[in-house]
# Entry
Amino acid sequence: MAIIVAVGHLRYHEVDEIRAGVRRTVADRRLRVAKNIQVRRAARALAKSSDLHDVFAAISHMLEFGEFTFANAQVGQAGHADTNESAFHASLNRHPQQELELRNGRIYWSWVGENGEREDRRRAQLAWCFRLPLVKEGVEWGWLNFYHNLEGESLLIDTNYLSNLFLREFTDAVVRIISGYEVTDKTPQLSMKATANQVGR
# Structure
């Protein structure tokens, strides 16, 4: 009787939310778990990646779970075009068919799902964007965007997995790989020591 009375005092939108919660719990639990497992697998693959191709291959594989219609990324430190370009070419030499390109001194990547749309204006009209900034020790290393169709079904993936575990591993992989090609100044420094005779000469 108490439950009946309590439900009777709920407004329609509250009852609808309870129904939706039950439906999500019962029908979507397995799908949610499966998709979150794919994020964890991608995070492990990122930790083992040896070049930029490996990094974005791991992300492309994760995106096969069908939650997003389009994704794009730009990585590399601003003002370090030589280092970014070296990392890009090293990956290109190993994987000639990779879908990466250089844009304004940084590395750009994009992925299109089954119902995705490449054209920016069209995509902006049909999707919302989940943006992940890449920051390591206060230094900005780029960004990664996931697009979801406005008319699509609700996300089943836990976005906390993407914004924490996945983002951390993605950022670490990008920093580790690109930093490995950083050009350091190897100009030998002249010794400041000299004998009195050498100075006299």
Summary: The chain has eight helices and five strands. Helices lie at 2-8, 12-27, 29-48, 52-62, 81-94, 120-126, 159-179, 196-200. Residues 36 and 157 are 6 Å apart (CA to CA).
